[in-house]
């Protein structure tokens, strides 16, 4: 594999000016813009072209939104058709042919056990709003207020969604251990670790002195994304389904990031065969435009009219683009393609770990892939647990990727996981180019980490 020396990033005036003005005008809370100082001006498929004339392979895909990549012809065609038809672009939650077609296409893809008897609520345009709607729905339906959520979870930035996310401490949310192999909270990993987590969940729910009131619902991600690309084992998901069914607790699957073929099944819950009571959907369902819904068992529909309102629930262009995306993924077997290509990429990355001791773990499902970077020189833990995560190295790898024209995301508890979320349309050649650039970036980042480390000290 060719090791390219990092090319100096040239910043022409326009590009530099835009970045400078962004830094001056936008809030300190800006995120991606900090680690990815690029100014996209054109994009197609996997490729983004910056104002500096450089081209990048985009494996961030709008945080997993672009199932078909940038400006896919099918999506553009659907948007143009909606515009040319003279249909209104925004109509609150009124019925329209575009919305009718979107809902029909969405229901055609849902797990059968849910589609037969489902209701859909169009929410405000972000995933986080759909999460809020899901919580409100199960609280209304059950008359209870507490929620069960998992360590490492990410559900959004509005108050309720944030409370259910891993970093929060809301008293109404009971935090349960999410199973993970590499950093198993019980120190055993695998099936045994997942089973211990499930038993902890059961004990909390059944012990009258656990201090956990009967909850309104349980929310989980079938594969934790922001938490560091951690797939939940299928058996554990089935256990969560059993535990919640037996205790009449609605199960909410947050498929905002895992949906629309991303994990190698149309919806990630299909891997385990579970049918949730509520599914939270956003990102790819809008075919690159903002759209969010919840779909749920109709028995839960105890809402009064207006219980979850919002002005922007009728974005016709997003529905047109979304319907076209859902249909294209379904008709072209792109979930299956994600499964095959994702498995191959995982295997190749695992192979790479042999040459890069800083790769602690490679994991994922379909085209949702994570590489956890660790400090290989840290003294081995007496209990055999994983070495410390290496966030600085991960940040350096991200920068080296960018220098080589590859956009990757960081995630995980300490931002030590390099994440790949390429479009499902990724070709074999593009996949090879992505992995080549990532391998070169790893080599370069390791080399400069060693140059910075005085002899005898861990890097
Ligand atoms: N749930 C999950 C699983 C997510 O990954 C995200 C966003 N990364 C959200 C909810 C929130 O979506 P949004 O940023 O559109 O509010």
Question: How many beta-strand runs?
Answer: 17
**Quaternary structure classification:** single chain
- Which percent band covers the strand fraction? 15-25%
Gross CATH architecture of the largest domain: 3-Layer(aba) Sandwich
- Helical amount: 25-40%
In the CATH hierarchy, the third-tier topology of the largest domain is known as Aspartate Aminotransferase, domain 2
**In whole angstroms, how far apart are the ends?**
25 Å
What best-fitting shape do the alpha-carbon axes yield? globular
Looking at this structure, what is the CATH superfamily of the largest domain?
Type I PLP-dependent aspartate aminotransferase-like (Major domain)
Average pLDDT metric? 94
Structural class determined from secondary elements: alpha/beta
The level-1 CATH class of the largest domain = Alpha Beta
Low-confidence stretches: 1-10, 455-459
* Main sheet record: 7 strands, mixed
Report what the structure shows.
There is one protein chain. This protein has 459 residues and is of the alpha/beta class. It has two domains: 13-64 and 334-452, Aspartate Aminotransferase, domain 1; 73-331, Type I PLP-dependent aspartate aminotransferase-like (Major domain) (Aspartate Aminotransferase, domain 2, 3-Layer(aba) Sandwich), CATH 3.40.640.10. 38% of the residues lie in helices and 15% in strands. The protein has 14 helices and 17 strands. The protein has helices at 13-25, 32-35, 61-64, 73-84, 97-109, 112-115, 127-142, 159-164, 190-206, 234-246, 316-331, 334-352, 391-403, 428-452, and strands at 40-44, 47-50, 55-58, 118-122, 147-150, 173-176, 217-220, 223-224, 230-231, 251-254, 278-281, 293-297, 359-365, 368-373, 406-407, 409-411, 417-420. The strands form four sheets. The protein has a seven-stranded mixed beta sheet. A hairpin with a 5-residue loop joins strand 8 (223-224) and strand 9. The protein starts with 12 loop residues before the first helix and ends in a 7-residue tail after the last helix. The model is unreliable at 1-10 and 455-459 (pLDDT under 50). The structure holds 4'-deoxy-4'-aminopyridoxal-5'-phosphate. 4'-deoxy-4'-aminopyridoxal-5'-phosphate is lined by residues 63, 126-128, 131, 154-156, 221, 225-226, 254, 256-257, 282.
């Amino acid at each position: 594999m060719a090791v390219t020396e990092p090319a100096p990033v040239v910043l022409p005036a326009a590009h530099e000016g835009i970045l400078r003005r962004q830094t001056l005008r936008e809030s300190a809370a800006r995120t991606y813009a900090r680690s990815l100082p690029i100014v996209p001006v054109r994009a197609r498929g996997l490729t983004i072209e910056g104002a500096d004339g450089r081209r990048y392979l985009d494996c961030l895909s709008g945080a997993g939104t672009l199932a078909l990549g940038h400006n896919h012809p099918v999506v553009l065609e659907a948007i143009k058709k909606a515009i040319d038809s003279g249909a209104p672009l925004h109509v609150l939650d009124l019925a329209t042919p575009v919305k009718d077609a979107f809902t029909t296409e969405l229901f055609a893809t849902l797990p059968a056990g849910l589609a037969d008897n489902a209701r859909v609520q169009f929410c405000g345009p972000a995933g986080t709003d759909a999460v809020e709607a899901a919580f409100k729905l199960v609280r209304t339906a059950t008359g209870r207020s507490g929620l069960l959520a998992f360590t490492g979870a990410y559900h959004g930035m509005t108050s309720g969604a944030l409370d259910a996310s891993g970093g929060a401490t809301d008293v109404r949310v009971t935090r349960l251990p999410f199973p993970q192999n590499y950093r198993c909270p019980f120190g055993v990993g695998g099936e045994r670790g997942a089973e211990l987590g499930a038993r902890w969940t059961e004990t909390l729910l059944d012990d009258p002195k656990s201090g956990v009131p009967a909850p309104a619902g349980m929310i989980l991600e079938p594969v934790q994304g922001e938490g560091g690309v951690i797939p939940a084992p299928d058996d554990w998901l089935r256990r969560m389904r059993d535990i919640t069914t037996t205790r009449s607790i609605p199960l909410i699957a947050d498929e905002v990031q895992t949906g629309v073929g991303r994990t190698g099944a149309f919806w990630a819950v299909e891997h385990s065969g579970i049918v949730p009571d509520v599914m939270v959907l956003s990102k790819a369902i809008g075919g690159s435009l903002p759209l969010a819904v919840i779909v749920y068992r109709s028995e839960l529909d105890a809402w009064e009219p207006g219980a979850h309102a919002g002005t922007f629930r009728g974005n016709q262009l997003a529905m047109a683009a979304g319907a076209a995306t859902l249909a294209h993924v379904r008709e072209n077997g792109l979930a299956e393609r994600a499964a095959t290509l994702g498995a191959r990429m995982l295997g190749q990355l695992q192979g790479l770990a042999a040459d890069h001791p800083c790769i602690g773990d490679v994991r994922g499902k379909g085209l949702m892939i994570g590489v956890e970077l660790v400090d290989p020189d840290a003294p081995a833990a007496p209990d055999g647990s994983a070495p410390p995560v290496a966030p600085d190295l991960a940040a350096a790898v991200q920068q080296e990727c960018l220098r080589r024209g590859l956009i990757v995301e960081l995630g995980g508890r300490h931002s030590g996981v390099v994440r790949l979320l390429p479009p499902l349309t990724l070709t074999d050649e593009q996949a090879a180019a992505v992995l080549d650039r990532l391998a070169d970036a790893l080599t370069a980042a390791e080399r400069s980490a060693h140059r910075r480390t005085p002899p005898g000290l861990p890097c």
